[in-house]
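Why do we care about 3D structure at all? Because function follows from shape, and shape follows, mostly, from sequence. That is the central idea of this module. The next example makes it concrete: a single protein chain, its amino acid sequence, and then its structure expressed as tokens.
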Amino acid sequence: MGKDGLFIDPADSRIRIKGITNPVNGKIILAPGLLNGVRTNYGLGNVIIHEVDHFKNWKNGILQGNHPLIQDLNEVSAYRTAGKWTGRPDPGINDYLNSIGNYMLNLINIIK
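And the structure:
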């Protein structure tokens, strides 16, 4: 966990994570930094909606597994759901959209 109270992505220490949905049991874990009085309830609501979308996907058995494409689609789903509530998706969605696009382009090159 970083000094800001957010979780650190083990794959990239520059990325801070506000919440995690356990892929095994569906439990939502919020970073302690969300409750430190610095962030707004609006931001907290955004993170909760994002994580609840992951929970719904888990509960419905969709977008699950360790494949990078599935994980990226799961993130896009959650960012879009939260974006419907806030009025626009968090800019973090762009990393996942770019990754999906790159995956599809690489797949096309493999199929050729």
